[in-house]
Amino acid sequence: MEKTVLIVDDSNTNVFLLQSILETEGIQTSVAISGKEAFNFLENRKPSLILLDIMMPDKDGFMVLEELKSNPEMKNIPVVFITAKNDKDIREIALEAGATELIQKPIDVNNVIKLVKNILLN
Question: 104, 86 in Cβ contact below 8 A?
């Protein structure tokens, strides 16, 4: 089965950057620009990993993560938060909420590739 990464971010620039990085590495991606759109996607398909922006209008990343973790069919999908927030405690808060990891913006391309491949291989 093909492994897919769902990118959930309301910024076209961030989506394009992440898609470009991952697809260059041969990793299949899908995109949602909101929490609502992500759940519409998840009704039909289950990605191997979700890259989830924290700061989005409507539902923020924490709300989306909470909803994912409360759904038996989705709770085991790894979620990596991506954020521009520079709060020193944000990584700890994200991990306690159930995220697998947190990536700070501006993103380090090599770290993103390494992290995503590591998660997809496990």
Answer: yes
For the packed helices 61-69 and 35-44, what is the interaxial angle rounded to 10 degrees?
30
Compute the distance between CA of residue 101 and CA of residue 82 in angstroms, rounded to an integer: 9
The superfamily CATH assigns to domain 4-121 is Response regulator (3.40.50.2300)
CA–CA separation, 11 and 122 (whole Å): 29
Please write the tens of the pLDDT for every residue from 39-67. Answer: 999 999 999 999 999 999 889 999 999 99
CA–CA separation, 76 and 69 (whole Å): 7
> What sign does the dihedral 1-13-104-42 (CA atoms) show?
negative
Name the token pair of 27: 């990793």
- How far is it, in rounded angstroms, from Cα 1 to Cα 108? 28
pTM, full prediction:
0.95
Domain edges within the chain: 4-121
